Amino acid sequence: MRLLVLGTGDAFSCERFGSSAVIEAPAGFVMLDCPDSVGSAMREARERSGWNVWPERIDDIILTHLHGDHCNGLESIGFRRWLMHRNHGTPLPRVHCWKPVAERLWERLGPAMDQGGKARLRDYFDVRELDPERTTGVCGLLVQCRPTEHSVPTIALRFTEGDRILAWSSDTPFDPDLIQWLEAGAHLIVHETSPPPTHTSIEPLNALPESVRKRMRLVHMPDAFDPTCTTIPCLQQGQVIEI
Ligand SMILES: [Zn+2]
Question: For the domain bounded by 2-242, which CATH number is listed?
Fold first, then answer.
């Protein structure tokens, strides 16, 4: 399993894309959240990493929540893939999310995509449900999710391939129970940092045991974030990490 970082910014970033990544899984690429300007984010990541990632080639998208910095790119991917589906019979992309997100996804996308009332969510995406109560297979990865205490329904994620585990906090206030869930056996823990109360400030992360911090990388930083305030490395856009 390898991780390609697409975006590392928070919702207000003017310098970086919204926090997102592509996971190279045994059966294809899995996109982890879908920020604004997703085509540009992928182009930049492609140029820096050499990975052949394009919005047209992503068949699986995991969505953590419905804030724009995590899902605004769905509209352009949806229209592009709808055209490919209509003109060439290309399968629709699968969107994996938990029920509270799935239930409101069309409320979010419909005003721009309903084509005068003729189109439905299923015309653009094959929506698959992630359930916090069970493990789901996505592209050969085992995926577990857990709700976080963010301001809208949001899930953190764990991805397992063989004995390798990647954990992704998504947006969350600092939560020791969540940290425990994320870090158990994980080789890489990607954790957000942004101003509280709906996000995690750097101080409690700096206070974690070294055994956790050394496996942790930061994402979702504000533009003013000072990387010297912590020994936990910040992810970089276009960076590739072998898990
Ligand atoms: Zn966010």
Answer: 3.60.15.10
